[in-house]
């Protein structure tokens, strides 16, 4: 579940912020509220993204190697990390 935070932040930056064209002389698709929120979302992604990546590396790579267990089962379980985000995003798009 904590992995939902950086996934949501990245999704927001790609779907809300990136499509805007505010740098042109006459912006046609510029949402100034989105521009104000961009710095918060970027900083939050820069903080939560590496933390989540470190958790994945420690839990799914370092611990199995340290306990001499099979790495394949743990890495297969790592694919379940984005599943809660994708399910919530799919449910939100239905509403």
Task: Please describe what this structure looks like.
This protein is mainly α and about 100 residues long. It is built from four helices and no strands. It starts with a helix and ends with a helix. The mean pLDDT is about 80.
SSE topology sketch:
Blueprint: H1 4-17, H2 32-66, H3 71-78, H4 83-94
Helix pairs in contact: 1-2, 2-3
Provide a compact summary of the structure.
Keywords: Membrane, Transmembrane, Transmembrane helix. This protein is an all-alpha fold and 95 residues long.
Count of DSSP H/I helices: 4
**Uncertain ranges:** none
Mean pLDDT, as a whole number?
79
Listing every helix as H and every strand as E from the N terminus to the C terminus, the arrangement reads HHHH
Q: What's the shape?
A: elongated
- In whole angstroms, how far apart are the ends? 21 Å
Secondary-structure-derived class? mainly alpha
List keywords for this structure.
transmembrane; 73% helix; mainly alpha; 4 helices; 95 residues
